[in-house]
Specification:
By secondary structure, this protein is mainly beta. It folds into two domains: 1-185, Beta Barrel (Thrombin, subunit H); 191-282, Pdz3 Domain (Roll). Helices cover 11% and strands 44% of the residues. The protein is built from four helices and 19 strands. Strands 13, 14, 15, 16, 17, 18 and 19 form a seven-stranded antiparallel beta sheet that branches. Strands 1-2-3-6-5-4 form a six-stranded antiparallel beta barrel.
Length: 283
Amino acid sequence: MVFQGFGEVAEQLRRSTVQITSDRRGQGSGIIIKSDGVIVTNAHVAGGAKLSVQLWDGSSFPARLERRSTRRDLAVLSIPTTYLTPATMGNSDDLRVGELVIAVGNPFGFVGAVTTGIVHAVGRRPGLGPTKWIHTDAQLAPGNSGGPLADAHGNVVGVNTMIAEGMGLAVPANTVARLLSGELEQAPLGVVLQPTVVRTGDREQLGLALLEVLPGSAAEYASLRRGDILTGIEGRAFGSLDDLEGALEGRGERVLHLQFIRDDPGKVRTANLLLGASRLTAA
């Protein structure tokens, strides 16, 4: 009885799944969530400066990045068209271990590929920060990222994101809902970062080296510059990149105090970032 109407469910999901092409990241997948051209995908899929979306019927449109959370690896895109077939979003909190799930995507450029699996767990995964994941044995491959993970009724319960030790990981649909509501909105810092190890005093710790500071960005207004190494926030040393990503989430005008070193490893400075405003100061 579980597979009754499976073909219809799979076809509906395929019509709501798109192929996303990036000038930097190659190809991935996305999910139509509104008929007027709103699409959700992974942040790493939408990492390029130029994005295009191809629908199930082969038509293609330029895409604009509307919202992004690198911490949750989610992004919202829009394309200039209407009358699309949106997916039905489900409640991922209702998902249970052992349930059948369906994944749709474009692995290796093969458009609209369908695979099935079983939910093995829902929760955090060691080494991947505080984010909750849906763990399944659905067979995923490069190109599936950003595509839908749905229950047996075709309700999208997650966004397929990565493979870890043979298991497919998906961001829960309820996290997508939080992003769309603005709850997970992330203030842009405007930098390109690379994790590194720095010595402050008599100990080593994680640092985030600034490889690039974008013109007009919050980081530039705070007088941060290429070569600086971020070491902490609000007086607390970084344990992971997730510490910075989490601090950037939120709405409204606020100040973040970033610790960094420049030239002299023994001298820790503080940059005062006024987020949500056009002017920042540094100390």
